[in-house]
Design goal:
Oligomer: single chain
Structural class: alpha/beta
CATH superfamily: P-loop containing nucleotide triphosphate hydrolases
CATH class: Alpha Beta
Number of strands: 5
Low-confidence stretches: none
Largest sheet: 5 strands, parallel
Length: about 240
């Protein structure tokens, strides 16, 4: 049994990667099972779209979520899409029994997308600092980690996913490169707020740099995120 935890930040290609893994006959996927746990324990419930509905719909106890993750699964591979900042008030020791993959994105690209849902984000909302915490935890415990950069995946999906599969010791499956447009049964109840673009997709789209002037009010946050992102990006699988 292989349990893959994708530790992503928001407004990356994490949902596309979940859809990609869902194409595998040997894999079951889960969409952000710790989201309600995070919302129920932080002020984020006050500004995340659909927070009350998510809290009502999903298990709020993160320890029970971890028990589910580590329990019996219906397929040989279980893929858990997580947001790194959802990792609060939990014992991280379960990571010794999971395959841990960090997914990052250039904050200059990410932030201008994120503000469409969260108007005034802070460092704690965007995952970069938590990514470094996770990275340091894994290193301190001699646990392996693979880093992906969303841009690199889009530039060469087959190469990057092939190398990812090799590193996590599963066979690459070309079915991971395409999927049917539309929603999936595994989508979280929050899909209507966040998944408009991925629901239109049938595979990994071409990378397109964000255009326009970067918002002045986000520049201090961008400067906080940059060195954290750069540390991760240096480790990422190359396209």
């Amino acid at each position: 049994m292989k349990r893959i935890c994708l530790w992503s930040g928001p407004r990356n290609i994490s949902t596309a990667l979940m859809y990609s893994f869902a194409q595998r006959a040997d894999t079951i996927v889960y969409d952000e099972p710790l989201y309600a746990h995070y919302l129920s324990k932080t002020p984020a419930k006050e500004y995340h779209p659909g927070a009350a509905e998510i809290i009502a719909d999903q298990e709020n106890d993160g320890n029970k979520v971890v028990e589910m993750m580590m329990g019996v699964q219906s397929k040989p591979i279980a893929f858990f899409k997580h947001m790194t900042h959802h990792l609060i008030d939990l014992d991280w020791s379960f990571m010794k029994d999971t395959v841990n993959v960090i997914l990052t994105r250039d904050p200059k690209e990410m932030l201008v997308s994120f503000i469409n849902q969260i108007e005034e984000p802070q460092l704690k909302d965007v995952g970069y600092a938590k990514h470094i915490e996770v990275l340091n935890y894994l290193k301190a415990n001699d646990l392996s980690v693979v880093v992906l950069d969303g841009k690199n995946v889009l530039l060469n999906p087959e190469k990057v996913l092939s190398e990812l599969c090799e590193k996590i010791e599963i066979p690459f499956d070309k079915s991971m490169l395409t999927w049917q447009a539309g929603a999936r049964k595994e989508d979280g109840i929050w899909a209507k707020h966040w998944y408009h673009n991925v629901h239109k997709s049938t595979g990994f789209g071409k990378f397109k740099p964000k255009e326009g002037v970067f918002p002045e009010r986000l520049k201090p946050l961008l400067e906080e995120c940059k060195p954290l992102y750069e540390e991760l990006n240096a480790m990422a699988i190359k396209p």
